[in-house]
Predict the 3D structure of the following.
Amino acid sequence: MTRHTRLVMSMIYWAFVLYIFVPLILMITMGFKDSKFIGFPIRSWTLDWYVEVFKDSEVLSAFGYSMLIGVSSTLISLVVGIWIAVLLNGRGFIGKGLIYGLTLLPALIPGIISAISFRIYAQLWGIPPGTGAIIWCHAVHNVPFVMLIVAARLSTLPKSHLDAAQDLGADPIIAFLRVTLPYLRPALIGGGIFCMLISFDDFVRSFFLGGYQPTLPVLIFAKLRSGMSPEINAIATVVLVLTGLLGIWAERTTRRMKQGKLQS
């Protein structure tokens, strides 16, 4: 690679970094503005908007509701995703490709189409809009991501480990619980955090299948109807910080687990 090519690639990289981070920095900055309107110049700074976020019962309720939906749908996605990944990791059988394609389908369908389809399907089965419908929809959408992450980790599992467990008298279920499942732990943590963030951030499906209790993205959308304000920036900044800390925790935990296995 020539010097000119490296320079061009470096410029493209930093342009991309600015494209990503400048809007985030502006969003965070506007949350400190001592005014009800978004825009420059900022003549005075305040923490009042952030204080109001933690005092607003509506925001806290929506945050807790989104967490409930995210955790519930993630747990369901992990169970179903592991089951499908283990099934597809076995010997070839008739219909294996069909099952694989159908599992990936929810991740490929556009969000608005998926939300409308689930709304019609829920009405057909008499499922009322609300918590159960949202969890069900989010779980189905997240299963493909869990399956792919777990399947990638599962493909690196040495077959000798399972053979050794079976030679010691372990049946397939015990071998899975004591050998396969611990080996999949980094993938489960990564997949779980990924699904949690997707579910927490999902607006379209939550909007179409939600009831009277709004999730946090739906609440932010409702507040946007009256115009942008530093309050919305403060809410978004808090969510950004929390999700960033969650991602850092997941990355460090996964790295620590991998280093522990290498040392052992």
User: Anything to note?
Assistant: The chain has one domain: 57-263. The mean pLDDT is 85.
